[in-house]
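Audit log entry. Action: structure prediction of a protein-small molecule complex. Ligand: NAP. The ligand was supplied as SMILES and no pocket hint was given, so placement is left entirely to the predictor. Protonation state taken as written. Sequence taken verbatim from the request; no trimming, no tag removal. Recorded inputs:
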Amino acid sequence: MSIGIIGSGALGSNAARAFAAKGLDVILSNSRGPESLAGLVREIGPHAKAGTIAEAAGADIVLVAVPWVHIQAALHGLPAWNGRIVIDGTNAVEFLATDSPDRNEASNPLAAYGIKAIDLGSRHSSAVFSEFVPGARVVKAFNHLDVNVLPEPETAGGKRVLFYSGDDVAAKGAVRDLIETAGFFPIDLGTLDVGGPLAGLPFGTLATLNLVKI
Ligand SMILES: NC(=O)c1ccc[n+]([C@@H]2O[C@H](COP(=O)([O-])OP(=O)(O)OC[C@H]3O[C@@H](n4cnc5c(N)ncnc54)[C@H](OP(=O)(O)O)[C@@H]3O)[C@@H](O)[C@H]2O)c1
């Protein structure tokens, strides 16, 4: 099984470290092209390689790990998804530049964290995300934790919990297997409209909750 990763920053690189450590093959991609990822793939080792976005998107399971505001640009113009599995690792937040006026905006409850919630109206983020990957089977996962802990799935005598949710039972099963193979403890939060908002940043009740199953 191959895993493609679109976006190789904090989330993409740490997910790749976790997958590769268990012998899973990953193709990393970003906006600047494979050459810019040479150092990262060297560090991760033989199970990682750099590719174009289209090459990553052609893998059996594709993790999307780009900032919300770049999803459209990253996924634009890719071949048809044809029912393949896409993991939505994003959160509907905007990272604020250090000189952004929103950092001092009293009406932004997240200003202190340097982020701002993106207004999606009454829709949940994976419903919006799914429109960027038409025909894919979307599973929400890998989005609820500080990604710096991902390279250490086994900790404190147990397994770190990862939540997942989705509307396609078989796709969820495949992502559950992936989570388990990577050494985490998977917890099914149900459908996208239920599990997505529960575990999604910035306001999900389970977001950032770092649980370990003993
Ligand atoms: N950081 C966390 O702790 C955390 C936790 C959970 C979920 N998330 C979610 O994960 C997503 C990524 O966050 P991050 O912290 O990993 O961001 P990041 O460190 O800034 O990395 C972003 C990555 O996305 C790539 N990218 C940007 N525009 C692109 C495009 N048009 N095409 C292809 N790749 C593009 C960047 O590539 P270039 O550098 O080449 O532009 C970079 O590799 C966000 O949705 C975030 O909410 C983050």
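Audit: result stored. Residues 2-213 form a domain with the Rossmann fold fold (CATH 3.40.50.720). The chain has one domain: 2-213.
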